[in-house]
Write a structure and sequence with these properties.
By secondary structure, the chain is mainly alpha-helical. 72% of the residues lie in helices and 5% in strands. Strands 2-1-3 form a three-stranded antiparallel β-sheet. A hairpin with a 6-residue loop joins strand 1 and strand 2. Helix 3 packs antiparallel against helix 5. It is globular and about 60 Å long.
């Protein structure tokens, strides 16, 4: 079964609405666990009970990670179920194009992933601000500086950068998984589509990490961050002596890769998909 290139293109808003409502019935329940853990921490943080405080900190550090990966599992599972199970016949009969089908999934599921990640950043940011009020943390900052190590301010910048990088890579993984699932439903791979999807995904992942290494080595685009000054974009300089250097070229590459995968995946959906 293949998509119809002559489908009208005026149903995108309704498609987004339906995808959002369908996914919200399940995925919104995930956040109840984090809300309970956060409320628990807010209640016990000033009670003077160190054991409960430690438990609250551990829960609020670990649960956001779990929320991210539970959300990731859901967006992969629901993508495959809605497009390539028996439900796929109904989905592909909708009066929308392949780009709209894929675009709606990417927008809605990307939004859920962003919300999960934003919740994690909010909780971790609150824990960090809570820790900053502790005298032991302030003394640790002085000690790090004396021994020539990055200050806590620099460490926070690094953490923020790698959190952004983590989200970009996570979104790229979703793009590759959607591509692998879609490609595995071509006639060539349909007899072993699960194994084919796994192989295609790992090949794409290897190519991605090789390309990131090549881009990072040969294209120098960085943000230079100072403790007491503004950030600035630096292009074409490999060795930066001052401030914190944050490579941006891998992020730009991943964005380009995701755009390319979107058009390739939607093209496969339009022309070569075979739903069992």
């Amino acid at each position: 079964m293949t998509g119809n290139s002559d489908k009208p293109k005026n149903k995108m808003g309704m498609l987004l609405k339906n995808d959002f409502l369908a996914s919200s019935r399940v995925i919104s329940l995930i956040y109840i666990v984090e809300i309970i853990a956060y409320v628990f921490f807010m209640i016990i943080k000033d009670r003077g009970n160190n054991r409960l405080l430690a438990l609250g900190i551990v829960l609020n550090f670990a649960i956001p990670f779990l929320l991210i990966f539970v959300s990731l599992f859901f967006v992969i599972y629901d993508f495959n179920k809605s497009l390539y199970s028996q439900q796929g016949y109904l989905t592909y009969s909708l009066p929308v194009t392949a780009k709209q089908l894929l675009g709606s999934k990417m927008i809605v599921y990307g939004l859920w992933m962003f919300v999960s990640y934003a919740v994690a950043l909010f909780v971790w940011g609150y824990l960090a601000s809570y820790a900053e009020g502790n005298e032991n943390v302030k003394m640790a900052d002085v000690a790090l500086t004396l021994f020539g190590m990055p200050s806590i301010a620099h460490i926070k910048v690094y953490l923020f950068y790698y959190m952004i990088m983590f989200f970009v890579i996570l979104f790229s993984f979703i793009s590759m998984i959607y591509f692998a699932i879609t490609a595995s439903h071509m006639r060539t791979f349909q007899n072993a589509n699960f194994i084919s999807a796994v192989i295609i995904f790992f090949v794409c992942a290897i190519i991605m990490f090789v390309m990131i290494a090549i881009v990072d080595k040969n294209i120098f685009i960085s943000f230079l961050v100072y403790d007491d000054g503004p950030t600035k974009l630096v292009i074409g300089k490999k060795n930066l002596e001052d401030g914190v250097s944050l490579p941006m070229s891998p992020i730009f590459y991943l964005i380009i890769q995701d755009i390319a995968l979107f058009f390739i995946t939607s093209s496969i959906m339009k022309k070569w998909i075979n739903i069992k």
